[in-house]
Specification:
Mean pLDDT: 88
Distance between the termini: 40 Å
Number of strands: 23
Helix content: 40-55%
Shape: globular
Low-confidence stretches: none
Strand order of the largest sheet: 3-2-4-1-5-6-7
Length: 697
Amino acid sequence: MNKGIYIATLESHSGKSMISLGLMRTLLGKMVKVGYFRPVINDVPKGKRDNHIDTVLSYFDLKIPYEDTFAFTRSEVIQKRNEGKSGEIIDTIISKYKKLEKEFDFILVEGSDFSGEGSVFEFDVNVVIAKNLGIPVVIVVSGQFKNWEELLGYQQMAYRAFKDKEVQVIGMVSNKIKQENLEPAKKNMRAFLPEEVGVFAIPFVDTLNNPTLKEIVQVLNGKVLFGHDFLDNQTGNFGVGAMQLRNYLTTLKNESLVITPGDRADIILGALQANISSNYPRISGIILTGGLTPEDSILKLIEGLSEIVPIISVKEGTFAVTNMVGAIKSNIYADSIQKIQTTISIFERYVSFDPLVEKLMNYNPQGITPRMFQYGLVQRARESKKHIVLPEGTDERILTAAKRLIDMNLVELTLLGDVDIIHKTVAKIGLDLDFSKVNIIDPINSPNLEDYAKTFYELRKHKGVNMDMAKDRMCDVSYYGTMMIYKGAADGMVSGAAHTTQHTILPALQFIKTKPNVSVVSSVFFMCLEDRVSVFGDCAINPNPSAEELAEISISSAESASAFGIDPKIAMLSYSSGSSGKGADVDRVREATEIVRKRRPDLKIEGPIQYDAAVDISVGKSKLPESEVAGQANVLIFPDLNTGNNTYKAVQRETGALAIGPMLQGLNKPVNDLSRGCTVADIYNTVILTAIQAQGI
């Protein structure tokens, strides 16, 4: 059975790294263990490591020793080739690959980079390696600086070379293509490639080719005067500040890199002021040339500014520095998280590799891993896009998450809040949010305010609500967002980044209400542990549930698990296992377990049971040898909020597990609560959960 795929190119700077990062993300969403291997890497200074290997290992948290990820450096291959030891090269590569093959379900193999001495014969070496490993190939060809005839020639040559060696080509990628030429590029490939070969075209993306300030500092051997924390800033373009300030300001573009002599205090201060002004684009950094630095009084003024971009001093003159910056070829580094995420996002937008991966794998993994789970969430959200409202539209974290969700094309979004404040916040944090792809509503000025207030009045007048009170409620973002769901203007809501749980949930309880036969709104966390995903409930809502409520929480949690691809095995947790324990608390858990068994005899459930007996197979079998749940539980129901909340946080902190949630269950339509300490990733994941919940309603 095939267990690998080879990514090959014919040239340097083809964008092969994008394909490897994107494809690794795809594979990790479908398989338990994916390995990474590079037969030949670039030469690296003694004591240093290959940057691209470190990037892949670090970002995807692959547990592979560095020395197992490659076979040779380029100079070693050249030397052995000159010595007539080509066979030894292949033997060593096969040996190292087979070692990984035994340890992993699938191996992503990335060919060489075509840079430096020996690149003339590199393509042939890659063909031979793929042939001897017996794995299919994806070919990547850059369209940059090529006309149609040249691009087609490269592609046909590459395909024939692999075909002649009887190496299966399963996909070809035209990379760095002008946006308007994407479809013609695919049509040209399809004209000469068999139908079973996938064809893809990816546009040229400026932000991926522009260097970061960190790369510029390294190339120029510069001294960082200010802004050490922002060296990951990417340059959009660069220009020399030599004219008068009033004229230079008109030349600034978004993410501009300002290059100016170190004694031009007017340009320096003007650029910094423009950076914090909503009337000018954001700048990425300032390079001071000629070895000159501003006077102490100017440095003191800069230090006192609220926002400072990287300011770098270099010895070379302005002309030389400008040429050197223009010649820098940008790379992706392990700490370039934004750049990596952008790369993967672009891959997923333009490359639909799923059908080809299915053919490659012929693999049916047991259970579900965190990578599979998270990948599945993204795919399910994208399959049937839902409309999610985010009431806290002025929060920087919400806006950052919104950009990522929109860029990934996962949901339709509505942000609530003052329109001007939202626009100013986006400008302040330098977020390239496409406002044409997101709805913004200020409830106070909304044309629907009167209608929503009337609806709320009709729903709550029996509780003493009058029209003035109803209108006041609808000016509140949480109430307005919830009413959007009630009226069908949105499919779900995520809030809580700046509001309490009660503020988020109360409107939903008042008029969204619970599902039929459900009286308890509860919550679950999807705990992404190292090798599995468990469902923890209830860790956020119910302080001291009764036996009846515990049973209902268990059933709701099992249904949530099933809805997200987890075959539920429920553990009703307590301080004792089986019939050994006595006392009101354990009796309540025992009673809840019996209620579930009577109502849902189809569910696998065990309780009361201790945590270790629930998740550790050896402990589970020793304490409850006849149980089909003990040691295998994946839905863990805690007896009270104190236990549940502390346990999920302890597991999260001590193991590094990703806790996705809380996801509320039991409501007629999905409303989910964030913690006020939530991260951008928390918001991103919770919105995706909410969208998938909405698909099932």
